[in-house]
Write a structure and sequence with these properties.
The chain has eleven helices and five strands; from the N terminus they run E-H-E-H-E-H-E-H-E-H-H-H-H-H-H-H. It has about 220 residues and is an alpha/beta fold.
Length: about 220
């Protein structure tokens, strides 16, 4: 059973999410919060598996609440939901540590799949969106092999693991990486797990952000 905390300043929106989650046997809503400050408190009290986090709320917004919840060291993972299809919200959420970003008009099955994926440790941002976000917001970061080689987060990677991270950074899925490197998909999954552990990434999206930050991958035109 996956436990979920719903955070939204609109009571009707919280009710709708609760109705959807309560209609399944695999999710349990353990609580609600109407703003970011309450979300931080409730997450500490309830330690849910997943926090459904709105972005725009009075007082402490969803981005800052995400940052505070994860900084506290809890096990909860954050799935950000917003009405606004703005890249800066998505990027800020991912940089704050969220494991995914979806719009509130997502279909019910997409939302449930997103919660399921985040609870399992995966990310819920499509490679194309990840690529677009990072292309827009990492312009000006230092790039180049020399700068990447000197970053301590990459020093423990084998050459193959570095290749996998590079492909992740360019937005390839596990299947596409497997095809590119002529390896099985199960082998790629193993490599991805090792890369995440070695560079200290929370999930795949965080690993992609690190690849850009250290200059292993440059922004797209």
């Amino acid at each position: 059973m996956t436990t979920v905390l719903i955070v939204d300043d609109q009571p009707l929106q919280r009710f709708g999410f609760r109705m959807l989650l309560d209609s399944t046997e695999e999710f349990t809503v353990v609580g609600e919060a109407e703003n970011g400050a309450a979300a931080v408190r409730r997450a500490a009290e309830l330690t849910p598996d997943v926090v459904l986090m709105d972005v725009r709320m009075p007082g402490v917004d969803g981005i800052e609440a995400t940052r505070r919840i994860l900084a506290a060291g809890g096990r909860s993972r954050i799935l950000v939901l917003t009405t606004f299809d703005l890249d800066e919200y998505a990027y800020a959420a991912l940089r704050a540590g969220a494991s995914g970003f979806l719009l509130k008009d997502a279909r019910p099955d997409e939302l449930l799949s997103g919660i399921r994926a985040v609870a399992a440790g995966d990310a819920v941002v499509a490679p194309g969106l990840t690529r677009r976000l990072l292309s827009t917001f990492t312009r000006g970061l230092p790039t180049g092999a020399d700068q990447a080689a000197g970053d301590p987060r990459l020093r423990e990677l084998t050459e193959r693991e570095r290749e996998v991270l590079l492909d992740m950074g360019t937005g390839l899925t596990n299947g596409e990486i497997a095809q590119h490197l002529h390896l099985s998909e199960s082998t790629i999954k193993t490599h991805v797990g090792r890369v995440l552990a070695k560079i200290g990434a929370r999930d795949r999206v965080h690993a992609v952000i690190i690849a850009y930050e250290v200059g292993l991958v440059g922004p797209y035109a």
